[in-house]
Prior knowledge:
The protein folds into two domains: 27-189, Rossmann fold; 201-306. It has 13 helices and eight strands. The protein has helices spanning 34-45, 62-72, 95-108, 129-133, 166-179, 191-201, 203-218, 223-244, 246-249, 253-256, 259-269, 275-289, 295-306, and strands at 27-30, 50-55, 75-78, 88-91, 115-118, 137-143, 159-164, 182-185. α7 packs across α8 and α12 packs antiparallel against α13. It starts with 26 loop residues before the first strand and ends with a helix.
Amino acid sequence: MAANINEAAGAHEAFCYPSTMPRKKTIAIVGPGNLGSSLAVALGEAGYRIRELVIRDGSRSRRQAAALARKLGARLSAISQATLAAEVTWLCVSDDGIAALARQLARRNTWRGQIVLHSSGALSSEVLKPLQRAGAAVGSAHPMMTFVRGASPEWRGIPFAVEGDRRAVDFARRVARDLKLEPFVIPASSKVLYHAMGSFCSPLLITLLATAEEIARAAKIPPAKISKVMRPILEKTLTNYFDNGAAAAFSGPMQRGDLATVERHFENLRRVPGALEIYLPLALQAARRLPVANRAKLLRLVRKYER
């Protein structure tokens, strides 16, 4: 059973909004997880009044959400009891929950004149169609950034992909200006590929680094030293990429055409479960997209080990 979890914030704990501040729309954040919490704090610091934080009925994160609500001077509600009376409702829930939540909310409230955004990188505003039919202006607004527990990023300069109804996009652009983001309009049909690009930049990159750690352990590098061994080459590689682009930053045996070394990599990576299966398609992409020497021989070598 959902409890009434409206939390009053003490004046000494909550943000202070100056009376001379130009009026900004009130906002409700649905789903104060890693992204939602960071967004709520950034909005509060930029002068937006966070009117309500909304969590799932029976949420395990109620205590953390209550602390955030006190800090923001916001009401904390379970979804079954949320008022959602703010001018803007921002859905920061998982992608697979947005459609059902939109249908649920559309049945409950009158949305005429309000704005509803979601923060999914992969979904367009089309998923909010039930709320649009109920009168809301809808849109998606996604920060291209990684959000992990306990490590909220600096919002300034984050790319911010927006699309949707004109009023929703205009509001998202104002938020971007106030938070000093880098907004751009993305076609709704491009959002999945846009999000996949982000996956290559963060979670899949982390997957590669985790695999590199496993290879380092197989190479008998002491565990305490692995990240220290990896860090300088990683940092320099990223610096080279951002300064000069992928082609100029590409180095190593494939770039030199040293296929004997590449083949020794292939043979020895068989000792590390799954590592060769990651290396081979990356070598294939390098042969197709980057300045490798002995390209045809490299392609034949990759196909030999793919069999």
